[in-house]
Design goal:
The complex is a heterodimer.
Chain A (H helix, E strand, L loop, with lengths): L14 E13 L6 E13 L3 E5 L6 H8 L7 E6 L2 E2 L5 H7 L3 E4 L13 H17 L3 H47 L3 H42 L4 H8 L1 H26 L5 H24 L7 H17 L5 H47 L4 H4 L9 H13 L5 E5 L7 H18 L2 E6 L2 H7 L2 E6 L2 E6 L1 H6 L4 H9 L39 H5 L5 E4 L2 E3 L13 H12 L1
Parallel strand pairs in A: 3-8, 3-9, 6-7, 7-8
Antiparallel strand pairs in A: 1-2, 1-4, 4-5, 9-10, 10-12, 11-12
Helix pairs in contact in A: 3-10, 3-12, 4-5, 4-6, 4-8, 4-10, 5-7, 5-8, 5-9, 9-10, 10-12, 12-13
Chain B lengths: L4 E14 L2 E14 L3 E5 L6 H9 L7 E9 L2 E2 L5 H7 L4 E4 L13 H12 L4 H14 L5 H4 L9 H13 L5 E5 L7 H18 L3 E5 L2 H5 L4 E6 L2 E7 H6 L4 H8 L40 H5 L5 E2 L6 E2 L8 H12 L16
Parallel strand pairs in B: 3-8, 3-9, 6-7, 7-8
Antiparallel strand pairs in B: 1-2, 1-4, 4-5, 9-10, 10-12, 11-12
Classes of the chains: A alpha/beta, B alpha/beta.
């Protein structure tokens, strides 16, 4: 078992979802070892079909489900949804496929955000979809596409060092202002000793701090202007298309400003300490360029962007106004700019929020309809939080959230495993109703064979990252063709005391997926294993109409490959 | 086997004091258990099956919990023992296997030491003398090459092997009673069968009474002599396993049984569901606790709660005015179908108001 091959796949133009030779591997630290979670699995689904994926824990069934969603992306292989190859899509294009490909998770409570109301949770996929379709407000488009990438990457890298740089910069600035004041009052003879440390510490810190902040400031200033003055609607769509060039222009402009900053600092230096300071300025200038590049190439996000924004604008304003003003005015400008920018920032955020609210209000009838469909009374559920619901109800909410975007395919990862038997039946029936009503195609992942049989049109048995058997559920359960399927079936406790529990053969446990057995992966636990199983990996083949098995010695069907060995194997198994 | 019951639980009641008021988790539970008998306790989550086990073990916290009733184990009332006396009971007299094997093992102690700990404390066995006994014990619970495994730590074992170690710990002092609380719920189906076989072999071999708590009717079917079905902290039905499965009387048992997807059913069989949710035990309904979800429900079920009574079959106890499979029950169901409360195929349409 545990073989590769794609004999069980159907004609390409019939299938809605097609997974071919998918491999998912997780490297273990720096050891060079790899967990072979999914090895060369091929699956397909016809529209309206339910594929049951069953196996022990650690067999890779959940990883398969997640890899179809591209979280994580498969190491190799192809996943096609409606003739679109998902594995090569970039993040933005993948987001656009999300409405058609949804997922329901095992633990309903932790799959729902505990801090948001049911109304928001159910509406969110729809609101995002509408935003994508109609074009978001210019600010939102710019910010969330290019702006967010650029801005938060810069900010996330800047904000952390700023914790150290800003206090130093503040001290330096105070020293600088004092020294300038002293100069104005012609006290340089008495206070000459303050000038050197002020310049050595102050200028480099200011150069880097203000330089990076100026970049942020320009980005944010343009972003703020767009947010305030550009109306929503058609214009936003046009702007959406050109948001990348606009963003690029912003970046270039701020880079120019930064160069100008460094140049000014450079030229403003005079006297015997100037060359020492210039060395520092060059060093920090190089360092901040490196920072900037690193920030753009590494993806991470920061929640402190608003703080950075305010500080940045303040610094930018200071850059423009700083010369020719006395110390007190400089401080006043600094503080004033920070306050003004925080206010503007809030206005823009509010504007974005209003747009969201408008879409949420528009989505409410649909949200109510969805809740009613899944059997939850919307009147008293909309404003509650997920943790106020029981497990079964929370799973209904998850289903409503998955259904609201009219998906074609839903991947259900153990959707009833965390639920009580009586509730499990309710959810299984609900999934069947939803499937019928919306013509859904389901991938149903579960470890419970009876549950899988109940919902599936086709069942795939997995073991240690490989497929064992693909068949119609009624056939599979009546006469399993793969020794592993048989082991699984014989292990189910039957609710019938007149049939005493079969003595289960102690076949041990799952081998490690880091170093899977050679040949057939099931051979170490297989009662029928022969020498051939260790050397040659079985491939998927049809042993009876519509029954596909990856085994050298299947339990059913004529074996033209080696009926003699099969007989021998059966005899060995009987021993 | 004939020397009378080894465990006698009578009128066991456990209340938790919650912020909303007292919550009766176990309400007047009584049962006996003889030597060599395996008792299954079945119910949904929140039905009080685990709290019953913990009340018998006296494992519940002291604050905000009130327990009353008597639990006689071999002539000793566990409810009256002090903390020190209880420690002498846990292990040699009564031991427990929990659901999560990793959570019940000490991660920084070798498994051999964990298995022998009870022997060393209760029976004064020296560590060196304990080693061969532990190896034998690990072998008997099906751990391969126990000579080398004895020095492993829990994280080096798989889930099934850990549960075997937990069972070895529970069996180390030859207890008079073993309580297994969902011992296989965290395990895979293939491993589950192995563990259940192991428990059965050990239990039958030592003639040790066992309480097997589970939510899975399939688990108790082949492996227990008697079954208690719990709901809302009460015993709803009690019968020998065979009687229960062939001749169930309690509508709740029937509903629970029907809601399980069965492997024999063809694919896409519509499952019979139990509508609604279990009652709120801080403010339980007046009549039968299952009435609101029952397809046999009659007006008097909502008014008064039926007693746990002996049915026609020997020793079959149930708590219902209109038991399944009796003329009264049939009549009640027909009345409900006529009134439109229940559809033709026996599904409750409207959940009865409280």
């Amino acid at each position: 078992m545990a073989g590769s091959g794609s004999a069980h796949l159907r004609n390409e133009h019939e299938t809605l979802l097609r997974v071919e030779n998918m491999v998912v591997e997780f490297p273990i630290g720096q050891t060079g070892d790899v967990v072979h979670a999914v090895s060369d699995v091929s699956l397909d689904l016809i529209e309206g079909e339910t594929l049951g994926l069953v196996g022990e824990s650690g067999c890779g069934k959940s990883t398969t489900g997640k890899a179809i969603m591209q979280v994580p992306r498969p190491t190799s292989g192809s996943v096609q949804l409606d003739d679109v190859e998902l594995t090569t899509l970039d993040d933005d294009a993948l987001r656009e496929t999300r409405p058609t490909l949804q997922m329901i998770f095992q633990d309903p409570i932790s799959a729902l955000n505990p801090r948001r109301s049911v109304r928001d949770i159910i509406a969110e996929p729809l609101v995002i979809r509408w935003e994508e379709e109609e074009g978001r407000p210019a600010t939102s488009l710019w910010f969330e596409r290019f702006g967010q990438q650029l801005f938060t990457r810069v900010a996330s890298v800047v904000v952390k060092p700023m914790r150290f740089v800003l206090p130093l910069g503040a001290i330096a600035m105070v020293l600088w202002i004092i020294s300038e004041a002293a100069e104005e009052r012609r006290f340089e003879d008495q206070l000459g000793w303050t000038q050197l440390p002020a310049q050595i510490i102050g200028f480099p810190v200011l150069a880097i701090g203000l330089g990076v902040l100026a970049v942020l400031a320009l980005l944010s200033a343009i972003w703020l202007l767009l947010g305030i003055f550009v109306p929503f609607g058609v214009v936003s769509k046009v702007l959406g298309d050109i948001s990348r060039p606009v963003g690029l222009a912003c970046a270039l402009f701020s880079a120019a400003t930064w160069v100008f900053m460094v140049w000014r600092t450079w030229n403003s230096l005079t006297g015997y300490s100037a060359w020492i300071v210039r060395v520092f300025v060059i060093g920090f200038a190089v360092a901040s360029v490196v920072w900037f590049v690193v920030a753009l190439t590494r993806s991470s996000a920061s929640g402190a962007t608003s703080v950075a924004l305010a500080l940045a604008s303040a610094a930018a304003l200071q850059v423009f106004y700083i010369s020719g003003l006395d110390g007190v005015t400089k401080l006043a400008v600094l503080i004033g700019a920070a306050i003004v920018n925080l206010i503007v920032w809030r206005i823009v955020k509010r504007q974005l929020g209003l747009r969201r609210d408008e879409l949420r209000a528009r989505s409410e009838p649909k949200v109510r309809e969805m809740l009613e469909t899944v059997g939850i009374n919307p009147d008293n559920a909309l404003d509650r939080k997920p943790f106020e619901f029981s497990g079964g109800q929370a799973q209904r909410l998850s289903i409503a959230r998955a259904l609201i975007t009219d998906p074609k395919v839903i991947i259900c990862d153990e959707p009833v495993s965390a639920l009580d038997v009586s509730v499990q039946a309710q959810i299984l029936n609900l999934l069947e109703d939803m499937k019928e009503r919306y013509g859904l195609t389901l991938v149903f992942i579960a470890h419970d064979l009876a549950v899988v049989k109940n919902v599936s049109d086709r069942v795939a048995v997995m073991y240690l990252g490989k497929l064992c058997e693909v068949a119609d559920p009624d056939d599979l359960y009546a006469a399993p063709a793969h020794p592993y399927s048989q082991l699984l079936l014989s292990a189910i406790p039957k609710p019938d005391p007149t049939k005493p529990a079969e003595e289960t053969p102690n076949t041990g446990e799952l081998p490690s997926p880091i170093d899977p057995p050679s040949g057939c992966r099931f051979r170490t636990r297989c009662p029928l294993a022969q020498d051939r199983c260790a050397t040659e990996e079985p491939t998927m083949r049809e042993v009876a109409p519509n029954r596909f098995v990856a085994c050298h010695f299947p339990l059913i069907g004529s074996d033209d490959e080696g009926s003699a060995t099969h007989a021998g194997a059966t005899a060995a198994g009987a021993r | 086997m004939s020397d009378g019951p080894i465990l006698q639980v009578s009128n066991l009641t456990t209340r938790f004091n919650t912020s909303r008021g007292p919550l009766t988790a176990v309400d007047d539970v009584s049962f006996n258990l003889s030597r060599g008998q395996a008792l299954g306790v079945v119910g949904e989550s929140g039905s009080g099956k685990s709290v019953t086990a913990r009340s018998i073990m006296r494992l519940l916290p002291k604050s905000n919990v009130e327990t009353s009733g008597t639990v006689m184990l071999d002539g000793v009332n566990l409810m009256e023992l002090s903390g020190k006396e209880l420690r002498g009971i846990w292990g040699p007299e009564i031991s427990m296997v929990f659901q999560d094997p990793l959570g019940s093992l000490n991660p920084v102690m070798k498994i051999g030491d964990q298995v022998s700990e009870g022997m060393r404390i209760h029976q004064g066995v020296k560590k060196r003398d304990a080693r061969p006994i532990v190896i034998e014990l690990l072998r008997s619970v099906g751990i391969p090459s126990p000579e080398s495994r004895i020095d492993d730590y829990p994280h080096q074992l798989s889930g099934g092997m850990r549960q075997r170690v937990v069972i070895a710990i529970a069996l180390a002092c030859n207890p008079n009673l073993l309580i297994a609380d969902e011992p296989t719920t965290a395990l895979d189906v293939t491993v589950q069968a192995q563990i259940l076989d192991l428990l059965q072999v050990q239990q039958k071999g030592a003639l040790m009474p066992m309480i097997l708590i589970t939510h899975d009717l399939g688990v108790v079917a082949g492996r227990t002599d008697e079954v208690i079905v719990m709901y809302a902290g009460r015993i709803m039905e009690r019968a020998t396993t065979e009687t229960l499965f062939t001749n169930m009387r309690m509508p709740y048992t029937e509903a629970l049984f029907e809601s399980i997807p069965k492997i024999e059913y063809p694919s896409h069989t519509r499952l019979a569901i139990i509508p609604g949710r279990p009652p709120d035990m801080v403010d339980p309904p007046r009549g039968c606790k299952f009435a609101a979800r029952c397809r046999y429900v009659q007006p008097e079920c909502l008014e008064s709660e039926p007693e746990l009574t002996v049915g026609v079959d020997d020793g079959h106890l149930y708590r219902c005015f209109f038991p399944v499979g009796t003329p009264e029950g049939q009549a009640a169901l027909e009345r409900n179908i006529e009134a439109g409360l229940v559809s033709e195929d026996g599904v409750l349409v409207t959940v009865a108001p409280r």
